[in-house]
Amino acid sequence: MGRLAVAKLIHSIATRRGSWAASQSRIYASAPAPPPAVFGDKNIRVIFQGITGKNGTFHTEQAIEYGTKMGHYVRSFRNFSTVASTGTDYKEGVKLLVTGGSNAQKVVGIWLFGSAAWVFSMVILGGVTRLTRSGLSMTDWKFTGSLPPLSDEDWCHEFEKYKQSPEFKRVNKGMSIEDFKFIYWMEYAHRMWGRALGLMFALPFSYFLRKGYITVGLGLRLSALFALGAGQGLIGWWMVKSGLEEPASEYAQPRVSPYRLAAHLTSAFAIYCGLFWTALSVVMPEPPAESVVWVRGAAKVKRLVLPVSLLVAITAISGAFVAGNDAGHAYNTFPKMGDTWIPEDVFDMKPLIRNFFENTSTVQFLISFEFDETDSETKSHVWKGEKQLDHRILATLTLISVGALWWSTRKLDIHPVVKSLIGSTAGMASLQVTLGISTLLSYVPVSLGTAHQAGALTLLTLMILLNHTVRRPSMSLLKSLPQVAKTL
């Protein structure tokens, strides 16, 4: 058999799609490797053995590209996968998170993306619950949940419990039972939606573990995320409980602790980011890389993206302090805060340096102004103004940073996907600032407030996707890349 015939045989094997019939697999598995002397090229034997495998397994994911030059076949090897003796899947030197082939990888990826989308909806529903002031309507909590009120007597019982809360006495006194039903259903839906997420995550997780699709590394990561999700319910009740306590001053409105609200939101963001990143890693073990030049460009982008991502996350968390203190109602003007750019009493704390540490969203200390009890409203207004100022400054810095990222990378030779993601991130940052200003000027309506919270998570999603896309490829893939990408 000549070299041309063997090359055609290898090509037909490598390009065949679908699963092989048992008889065909046995034929190729039992076929002896031809001696090098017959073909005059020892590489042909290596190729043949690599395709059939030592144990006769045929790997359909392999791809062999052919070209002609001076009448000879030029063979290149890409994306060959081998199965380790331990049962862990590797693809061209990259350790895969899912075993069982491409179908298992696809199913697990869909499940993880669906779980991340569910967490996204949980964050949005939580925002609606807060904006409609429904979060304190349920005055008790059970880990497993309970049935909602089903009779008039049950509703009256729940309403009586709510009447004992500080919120009813100071804010909603005179509320009808019909109005109470609305805020109760909002909080009940938020809690049960979270419990449903737990089932939706745990059941497929158990199934995939039993099927052997989940590797040890992925299993540990998902177990940690599941534990964090279970703890999220406890954090939520810890937050709500702070709003059921009598405020220190008779002039203050009952509300949940802004620090506990920030902890609750940060935990939700962490779960979402973990799920989304893991889902991307399952379906895209290698970043898009078609040339060494594009890989180098991605490395330059990565150095810029990391600090911008951190700033986006801090800005999002600072929004929890704005929400927790109702700071969106303090100064409903833009760009000035009232009649000034910076309120006069923002830097009242002595020494001056304390203002830069105790009034940021990352350092959780209470303000200690020397006010009388009768000046509690003034004290609250100052606190709200400072929190709003923090958020405005961080949001402005975020927009400038994302804009600088786009500007500094616009002429880099990078993968089109990376360039498109940077443009989308810049557009989303602009939209998010626009939503924030509109929400402020409109006195925080539920619709715009919810859209603004969704926008924050969307911007964070784009940053995660961008970070995942500019990862460094594996060394084996890097070695197989051409210096410059091929253009059509």
TrEMBL record:
InterPro entries to which the protein is assigned, alphabetical: COX15/CtaA_fam, HemeA_Synthase_type2, NAD(P)-bd_dom_sf
Coiled coil start-end: none
Gene Ontology CC entries for this record: mitochondrial inner membrane
One Pfam family it belongs to: COX15-CtaA
This protein's UniProt keywords: Heme biosynthesis, Iron, Membrane, Metal-binding, Oxidoreductase, Transmembrane, Transmembrane helix
Single GO BP term: heme A biosynthetic process
Biological or metabolic pathway of the protein: Porphyrin-containing compound metabolism; heme A biosynthesis; heme A from heme O: step 1/1
Membrane topology per record: Multi-pass membrane protein
Catalytic activity: Fe(II)-heme o + 2 A + H2O = Fe(II)-heme a + 2 AH2
GO MF annotation, one: oxidoreductase activity, acting on NAD(P)H, heme protein as acceptor
Presence of the UniProt keyword Zinc in the record: no
Localization (cell): Membrane
Necessary cofactors: heme b
Annotated transmembrane regions: 107-128, 192-210, 222-240, 260-283, 304-324, 393-409, 421-444, 450-470
Protein name per its UniProtKB record: Cytochrome c oxidase assembly protein COX15
Organism: Morella rubra (Chinese bayberry)
